[in-house]
Every structure is written in C-alpha cells, then in structure tokens.
Specification:
The protein is α+β, with helices and mostly antiparallel strands. Helix content is 38%, strand content 24%. It has 6 helices and 8 strands. A hairpin with a 2-residue loop joins strand 3 and strand 4. The N and C termini lie far apart (42 Å).
Length: 204
C-alpha cells in the first residue's frame, strides 16, 4: 500500500495527505502537500487514531473538505503501514465495511496500474463491482474487458491512463455504489430507489 493519500484537486492543483511515523519519537503526524509542495503538517501525536480523529479540524483550517468514512479508515491503515506493521494495517482493512474495502482496493489497484503503465500506452481495465478487485489486464476496449470476465454484468470498467487525482477512495466508493444500483435496475432519474439505498435528503 502506498502511503500517499489523494484528496483530489483544489483550484486545479493536486492535494495529498502523507502519513508519517517517527520511530525515534514513537509519534504519528500528517503532512499536507499541495501542488507538489509541503504546505502544512499536523502532529505529532502518540497514536494513529489521534491523527484520524483530528484530521477534519486540520483540513477545515486549510479550507479543505472533511474526510469520508472510507477515507478515514484508509488513512488509519496508511498511518499503521508507515510504522511497518503491515499485519495490523491489514487487520484494520479487514474490519472495515465491505463497500469501503472495495473502494480502497479499487483505488490502490488504479494507482499500481498507473505506476507501471508506459507513457504511450492506454487501455481499459475491468473492476468487480462487489469487491473492487481486478485481473490487472489492460484491454483494447470496454467490450473486450467485459468479455474476458466470468460474469461481465458484475464488472465496471475504467479507461487508463486516467487522472490519478480524480480516482480518490471517495470517488471509487461513489462509482461502485452507483454501478451497484445501476446493476439492480433501480435508478430513476439518476437516483437509486431500491431498499439498498438511503432516502435522498430533501432540498429545502
């Protein structure tokens, strides 16, 4: 798992969080990177949970949105990964909600595929809607990517290369949720109406 945590873009510039663990102080902190430069640091704290619980206030002071539930789980796992305790980090991910696990896996797979994709090459990758997994293969088009799967309707596709800043954990979660309802056949005017979905908030 890569440590850097993408939050998307702000004013056209990439915004990232980078978890840090100082073994000498046995302390955790969080670096905020904007447009490729370190702009602020949050911490140190004695526990990874302290960083996660106070991250929203830190981001709010910088005019940045709050973390979603999936992002908070993902950030916690990355903070633990920074210590080198990969077993504990994996345990945290296993205890996460299934939809959060799927979004985090899809995000990580996109990052890995993008990292090894030659500059002059592109293609389509299939992701399983239920768990965010992929066969890791690059196909020439969506039809070929879906045809290679055991159950094409259970998959969604992403064209690579893509802007890595746009495929945040939160975006993956939204995409998989949308595709889940689309597969149910329960979308009405872009809004899911099946029992799996929460009722939309009335706009007053």
């Amino acid at each position: 798992m890569e440590l850097t945590f993408e939050l998307g873009t702000r004013d056209g510039a990439p915004t990232k969080l980078h978890p840090v663990y100082d073994a000498r102080q046995e302390a955790y902190s969080l670096q905020l990177w904007e447009n490729g430069q370190l702009s602020d640091e949050h911490g140190p704290f004695p526990y990874a949970g302290d960083v996660v619980e106070t991250a929203d206030d830190f981001l709010a002071r910088r005019g940045i949105r709050r973390l979603t539930g999936a992002e908070r789980t993902d950030l916690y796992a990355r903070l633990l990964t920074a210590t080198g305790d990969l077993f504990y980090a994996r345990c945290v991910l296993m205890l996460a909600e299934p939809q959060d696990q799927a979004a985090m896996l899809m995000h990580d797979e996109i990052q890995k595929l993008m990292a090894r994709l030659p500059e002059d090459k592109w293609g389509v990758v299939a992701f399983r809607i239920e768990d965010g997994s992929t066969d890791g293969q690059l196909y020439p088009d969506r039809e070929a990517a879906e045809a290679a799967q055991d159950d094409p309707e259970a998959y969604t596709t992403v064209v690579l290369p893509a802007d890595p800043e746009s495929w945040t954990v939160d975006r993956c979660l939204e995409h998989l949720d949308f595709m889940t309802h689309l597969r149910h056949g329960c979308m009405v005017l872009g809004v899911p109406v099946c029992w799996h979905a929460p009722l939309p908030t009335p706009q007053v």
